[in-house]
Design brief:
It contains ten helices and 15 strands. It is an alpha/beta fold. It folds into three domains: about 90 residues, D-Maltodextrin-Binding Protein, domain 2, CATH 3.40.190.10; about 80 residues, Periplasmic binding protein-like II (D-Maltodextrin-Binding Protein, domain 2, 3-Layer(aba) Sandwich); about 120 residues, Alpha-Beta Plaits, CATH 3.30.70.260. Strands 1, 2, 3, 4, 5 and 11 form a six-stranded mixed β-sheet that branches. It is elongated, with a radius of gyration of 22 Å. It starts with a strand and ends with a helix. The chain binds 3-phenylpyruvic acid. 3-phenylpyruvic acid (PPY) binds next to helix 1, strand 3, helix 4 and helix 6.
Length: about 300
């Protein structure tokens, strides 16, 4: 039974994602995304489940930066989870009296309209996770009047639901990933995704276009691109890429080998089955047999067999 670290405490959306990804795993709740990833790195856990992006606000930047700068980990699974937010408070609290709200930053951005409409005078404070917020609000002397979290977190910490489904959109989805220390990759399934981080060798006109060309000429479809500051000054960025296919696919292998040739550093973050099961459309000339045939043809040319 694997032991999986996750963004806790009990009752987070990440816990729900973990239970769906591996119902039999032993669960190790951690206070932050970084602590969960460090538990996987140190061997305290066999792996970790963390949020990566959501369909409203985009990337969870702590996760992106951990993947880029921390000890290497490999993504081996992903999950898309529809999330619904509830306004939770100690029994007896009434919405007009709520002055301080506590929740995770991703929940703040996804409940903006509700907060400004129903809680216009409330101060909203960032919590380490939605369940940490619910837990804190449940304490008798808490400085917070309400938390925004999953309904189940309210049940867990003895809070009442003052309002349900308060997200700006009811179809919000969060993408979670399961990571482990580097080791054998999941097999290619025909519906896979690969994640990379790329650092430029030097800043020059067309550097981004050159990277994109490596994907484009091999028919590799990108599903996410993100630029993040390197920390070396304004204008200094590195890039995150998600794209269709597995590193075992010829077109994907060739594309990332091309990036390795032209970029400063390429960090491979894993090839793993896609949660939505979508298979890539293979452009003419970019299938594995076509790459193999072209390789054989080149070998003959080099041998003078024209
Ligand atoms: O805080 C949580 O419950 C998390 O798992 C992070 C999060 C927060 C808001 C939406 C999705 C995930």
């Amino acid at each position: 039974m694997p032991r999986l670290a996750y963004l806790g405490p009990e009752g987070t959306f990440t816990e729900e994602a973990l239970r769906l990804l591996d119902p039999t795993a032993e669960r190790l709740p951690c206070a932050t995304v970084s602590a969960a990833l460090n538990a996987a790195r140190s061997g305290d856990a066999d792996g970790a489940v963390v949020p990566l992006e959501n369909s409203i606000e985009g990337a969870i930047t702590t996760t992106l930066d951990e993947f880029a700068w921390g000890e290497p980990l490999l993504i081996n699974a992903e999950l898309l989870l529809p999330v619904q937010f509830s306004l939770l408070a100690r029994p007896g609290t009434e919405i007009p009296h709520i002055k301080r709200v506590y929740t995770h930053p991703a929940a703040i951005t996804q409940c903006r309209a509700y907060i400004s409409r129903e809680l216009p005078d409330a101060v909203v404070v960032a919590a380490p996770s939605t369940a940490a917020a619910a837990q804190e609000v449940s304490l008798p002397g808490s400085p917070y009047d309400a938390a925004i979290a999953a309904r189940i977190a309210g049940e867990h910490y003895g809070l009442v639901e003052l309002a349900g489904d308060i997200g700006d959109r009811s179809d919000t989805v969060t993408r979670f990933v399961k990571v482990s220390r580097p080791g054998p990759l999941p097999e290619a399934t025909g519906s896979d995704r690969t994640t990379l981080v790329v650092f430029l060798a030097d800043d020059h006109p067309g550097a981004l276009l050159e990277m994109l060309t490596e994907f484009s000429v091999r028919g590799v479809n990108l599903t996410r691109i993100e630029s993040r500051p390197t920390g070396d000054g304004i204008g200094r960025y590195f890039f995150h890429f998600d794209f269709e296919g597995h590193v075992a696919d010829a077109r994907v292998g060739e594309a990332i080998a091309g990036l390795h040739r032209i970029c400063g550093e390429v960090r491979f973050l894993g090839s793993y089955p896609r949660a939505d099961g979508v298979a890539p459309q293979i452009k003419r000339g970019t299938s594995d047999p076509e790459f193999a045939e072209a390789g054989e043809w080149l070998a003959k040319v080099r041998a003078g067999q024209v």
